[in-house]
Amino acid sequence: MYEVNETHDPALRSWVQSANQSGTDFPIQNLPFGVFRTLGSKQSWRLGVAIGDQILDMSAVIAGGVFSGKLESGLATDALAACGGQSLNDLMAMDADHWSALRLALSRGLREGASEAEALGRCLVAQDAAEYRVPADIGDYTDFYTSIHHATNIGRQFRPDNPLLPNYSWVPIGYHGRSSSIGVSGQSFPRPVGQTKAPDAETPSVGPSKRMDYELEVGIFIGTGNEPGRPITMERAEEHVFGLCLLNDWSARDLQAWEYQPLGPFLSKNFASTVSPWVVTMEALAPFRLPFNRPEDHPQPLPYLSSAANREQGAFDMKLEVLIQTEHMREQGLAPEPLARTNFRHSYWTVAQLVAHHTVNGCNLRPGDLFGSGTQSGPGEAEAGSILELTAGGKELVKLPGGETRGFLEDGDTIILRGHCEKEGTVRIGFGEVAGTLLPAVGM
Ligand code: MN
User: Fold this and answer.
1) What is the chain's mean pLDDT, rounded?
2) How far is the CA of 260 from the centre of ligand 1 (A)?
3) Among 98, 149, 150, 357, which one carries the catalytic annotation?
4) DSSP for 112-163?
5) Is residue 176 annotated as part of the catalytic site, yes or no?
6) How remote is the CA of residue 264 from the centroid of ligand 1, in Å?
7) CA of 281 to the centre of ligand 1 (A)
8) What global pTM score does this model have?
9) Sign of the CA dihedral with 114 first, then 15, 121, and 90 last
10) Burial code of 238-264, b = ≥16 C-beta within 10 A, e = fewer?
11) 413 Cβ contact list (under 8 Å, min separation 6)
12) pLDDT recorded at residue 444
């Protein structure tokens, strides 16, 4: 696990003035990676690092030779050379020492008084003038189910007598999702059509989903992979994780209820999932780690899911928020309305445990693979990470500014997820946001 080091020093200030403003998601202590190009252009995609309201264009940094002959470490030189492509995969395929060396070089170059300031200043692009792609070429996507509060709330609706299945406390439950339909913030998609069966109906019918939902999740990008047949141990698990982002795992609850037994979610989940453009590195998150612990009356994780470092600081203090802006609210000029707030700290399983469990059977992970944490719901009612939970299955409607109500999502609704970390004695870092919009069904 990463140590807190000079790159996290709260006293650091950048010569990019917007990075020093309080409340910015992207101070110099953050330095997340993404992939961008000029808005509306047909340019090649290029890697960028968010700083304040700007993007440091890594292709321009390489082309300009800004760091040529200046980097003390060969690791940083090699890592910088992996930033010239059109996705984060080459950088992700390196290792934690390389990512760390590059972060240090960027931190030093972006600090007030840095000798590279003028040359790096020529490599800035305003975030307002950029568009983004999914930051990595995602080979495989796995979605987990790590919030016991979500699992219990959902289980109660699908199986009132038996909400939490007995394996939940032992196995980090997951399913293999689909990467082809993962989009970046700004994604819109038609309401999915599928088979559903009303409880009182004799037979199923096909049509647009009537119970559309979002899921407030943390996305976990795998960096270094492992060879088939070579499990990743808990001790090494975090070295294989590049960073975290925000993920909305859109869900059609009526399709899900009819299809999910016996093999789990299928068409209820694979029509769209949306990630935030910026990936916050594991090193940037070092100051915001928390102990992982289980209630004493719960089973403790089996040895292959346990380590001293995981107990001491396996969890993340990451605040999460979901907001809605309906088409009507947009027309009325009403701001997005918060629906729920929670924290990744409530997760029943840690990121390291997901990596160790996913590979214990010999399954190989590859750079750019994405894990979803599963919907993050906290213990309180206002901390629910899906509308299914907030409205008790569509029965207790949410009231919105402008007079509308919601049981499930309506066409034109935009859902926005935000996340940030803050702690006394540190500089707040943010994840930006992920927005996505549900469009009317097509083809029926
Ligand atoms: Mn999910």
Assistant:
1) 97
2) 13
3) 150
4) TT-TTHHHHHTTEEEGGGEEE--SS--S-EEEE---HHHHHHHHHHH-TT--
5) no
6) 11
7) 22
8) 0.98
9) positive
10) bbbbbbbbbbbbbbbbbbbbbbbeeeb
11) 324, 325, 326, 327, 406, 437, 438
12) 60
Which residue's entry shows tokens 């070092």? 286
Q: What are phi and psi of 232, to 5 degrees?
A: -95, 125
Q: Which CATH number fits domain 6-132: 3.40.50.2000, 3.90.180.10, 2.30.30.230, 1.20.140.10?
A: 2.30.30.230
Q: Where in the sequence of the chain do the CATH 3.90.850.10 domains occur? A: 141-439
Q: Tell me if 428 sits within 8 A of 23, measured CB to CB.
A: yes
CA of 8 to the centre of ligand 1 (A): 32
Q: Return residue ranges of the chain for CATH 2.30.30.230.
A: 6-132
**Model confidence over 315-370: pLDDT tens digits?**
999 999 999 999 999 999 999 999 999 999 999 999 999 999 999 999 999 999 99
pLDDT one-digit tens code per residue, 50-108: 999 999 999 999 999 999 988 878 999 999 999 999 999 999 999 999 999 999 999 99
* 67 alpha carbon, distance to own chain's centre: 31
Task: Tell me the pLDDT band of 121, cut-offs 50, 70 and 90.
Answer: very high
Q: 144 C-alpha to center of ligand 1: Å? A: 7
SS3 content of the chain, % helix, strand, coil (to 5): 25, 25, 50
What distances in angstroms separate CA 409 from CA 127, 214, 403, one per listed residue? Answer: 30, 8, 15
Q: What is the spatial distance between Cα 402 and Cα 235, in angstroms, rounded to a whole number?
A: 51
Q: What is the pLDDT of residue 160?
A: 87
* C-beta atoms surrounding 397 within 10 Å: 14
Return the residue matching tokens 């790096």: 120
pLDDT of res. 270:
97
Note the CATH number of domain 141-439. Answer: 3.90.850.10
Dist CA 2 CA 65 (whole Å): 29
Span from the CA of 151 to the centroid of ligand 1 (angstroms): 11
First vs last Cα of the chain: how many Å apart? 51
Contact 170, 299 (CB under 8 A): yes
